[in-house]
Amino acid sequence: MKKNCQEFECVFGIADQNYKSIREIEMTECLMESVSAKSLDAKDGKSMQQITCEFAVGDVKYVNGSGSVIKGNLSNKAKSWQTSYWDVLGLYNIPAESITKIDLPKHTVKMVEEHTSMRRLPTKTSGAYTCEGLKVSGSAAHNGYEAARDLCIKLMYDGVLTENEFQDWSVNVKDPSHKKVLGEILFIQSAPFKFTTGAEAKVGDAPLQWEMEMFCEQSFWKIAEKAM
After folding, report:
1. Span 173-197, mean pLDDT?
2. DSSP alpha helices (H): ranges in the chain?
3. What's the longest Cα–Cα distance across the chain?
4. DSSP three-state, residue 156
């Protein structure tokens, strides 16, 4: 997420009923290709947050298991991130109470392959880096529709976004009691480039809705709760 894609090695272990590793897949010269997450949706009260990572592998080796016990390092008291408990902080002048859904951006690294005389398999390096797909949706409650519409008209009226029109903002992810902050998602240098009303989005007979698609230079995740 910091545009610093580096090689890494990883092992996938296959365990028996006692969680002992009996087979292992060793992957070397790996490079991350993309990182994405589920949308934050206020109406989805049961869904847990999920992170999807895709990576390219330089070489693979299948070996016998080490016999070690596979176990996680999370505490039993650690709270899972749910997609419906969150607060928006600092998104221009749009009321946070009117925002109902946030489609989180996907981080993508384009791979470049180089062939050298030392080996037949190509060496992978990271090329272009993108952070795309950020979309904020909301309702007309608390004058949210008017605030989002007026903001987009103001920023996009001349067809040019200047440096001072981009803004940093964040989302606090909370536990079900809505008292404890589990983590924070930061959006760096974002600005809207498309505004869509509910009628255009074909949401049917639902109350007036709006969608705002946004540029986003970078997005960081901060975990406030300790794993151990």
Report:
1. 91
2. 144-156, 198-201
3. 65
4. helix
